[in-house]
């Protein structure tokens, strides 16, 4: 999709604030600092539309980005940030869980995982959770420019093994710096949203 028009619609704290226009929604999750804002900005060809968080864990609400009046990206709160309290963490978890399990418009989840490392326990929990609810998942390994291309396949294998990756899902190696994987991410989104 060639994106020209993006609207930051809202930061929603409660369900009552979610959009009502029934467009398909693609949720994006990942631990803080994984590169979620950078991915969103790359997908919509903006330098800093989605907030690139200088402070990890800052995004604590669902952010809805309306793209070309065709779909929403829904940026869900970053998880796994050690410095927030247990109570806060539980609250984020609840927002994400309620959204993903009750929202009819969600067509899939983009789960971002740092491509340089093994998935964290939180990454695994997120994937297991999505699979439990039959949500189609695109796993995006981020920051792949930091790894030599000869190691990409090996890294993909490590991540898939740790996640017990389901072959119905897709995996993309991505770099916000070089744009690698961007087209594949868009293809998956368009397929999920039937656009
Ligand atoms: P968020 O907290 O998940 O939204 O993460 P950000 O998008 O703010 O990125 C966190 C940090 O990682 C920032 O310093 C980004 O510049 C950096 N970063 C994100 N994506 C990439 C990437 O693909 N390659 C490299 N080299 N750095 C990245």
TrEMBL record:
<keyword id="KW-0547">Nucleotide-binding</keyword>
<dbReference type="GO" id="GO:0046872">
    <property type="term" value="F:metal ion binding"/>
</dbReference>
<dbReference type="Pfam" id="PF01926">
    <property type="entry name" value="MMR_HSR1"/>
</dbReference>
<keyword id="KW-0131">Cell cycle</keyword>
<dbReference type="GO" id="GO:0005829">
    <property type="term" value="C:cytosol"/>
</dbReference>
<protein>
    <recommendedName>
        <fullName>Probable GTP-binding protein EngB</fullName>
    </recommendedName>
</protein>
<keyword id="KW-0479">Metal-binding</keyword>
<keyword id="KW-0342">GTP-binding</keyword>
<dbReference type="InterPro" id="IPR005225">
    <property type="entry name" value="Small_GTP-bd"/>
</dbReference>
<dbReference type="InterPro" id="IPR006073">
    <property type="entry name" value="GTP-bd"/>
</dbReference>
<comment type="function">
    <text>Necessary for normal cell division and for the maintenance of normal septation.</text>
</comment>
<dbReference type="GO" id="GO:0000917">
    <property type="term" value="P:division septum assembly"/>
</dbReference>
<keyword id="KW-0460">Magnesium</keyword>
<keyword id="KW-0717">Septation</keyword>
<dbReference type="InterPro" id="IPR027417">
    <property type="entry name" value="P-loop_NTPase"/>
</dbReference>
<keyword id="KW-0132">Cell division</keyword>
<dbReference type="InterPro" id="IPR019987">
    <property type="entry name" value="GTP-bd_ribosome_bio_YsxC"/>
</dbReference>
<feature type="domain" description="EngB-type G">
    <location>
        <begin position="22"/>
        <end position="195"/>
    </location>
</feature>
<comment type="similarity">
    <text>Belongs to the TRAFAC class TrmE-Era-EngA-EngB-Septin-like GTPase superfamily. EngB GTPase family.</text>
</comment>
<dbReference type="InterPro" id="IPR030393">
    <property type="entry name" value="G_ENGB_dom"/>
</dbReference>
<dbReference type="GO" id="GO:0005525">
    <property type="term" value="F:GTP binding"/>
</dbReference>
């Amino acid at each position: 999709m060639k994106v020209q028009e993006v609207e930051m619609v809202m930061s929603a704290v409660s369900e009552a604030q979610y959009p009502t226009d029934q467009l398909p929604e693609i949720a994006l999750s990942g631990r803080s600092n994984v590169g979620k804002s950078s991915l969103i900005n790359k997908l919509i060809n903006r330098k800093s539309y989605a907030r690139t968080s200088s402070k990890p864990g800052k995004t604590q609400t669902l952010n809805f980005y309306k793209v070309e009046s065709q779909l929403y990206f829904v940026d869900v709160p970053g998880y796994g940030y050690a410095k927030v309290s247990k109570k806060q963490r539980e609250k984020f978890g609840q927002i994400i869980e309620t959204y993903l399990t009750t929202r009819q418009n969600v067509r899939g989840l983009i789960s971002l995982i740092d491509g340089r490392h093994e998935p964290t326990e939180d990454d695994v929990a997120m994937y297991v959770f999505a699979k439990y609810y039959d949500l189609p998942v695109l796993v995006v390994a981020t920051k792949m420019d930091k790894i030599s291309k000869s190691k990409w396949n090996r890294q993909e294998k490590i991540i898939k093994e740790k996640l017990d990756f389901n072959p119905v899902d897709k995996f993309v190696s991505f770099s916000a710096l070089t744009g690698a994987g961007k087209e594949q991410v868009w293809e998956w989104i368009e397929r999920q949203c039937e656009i």
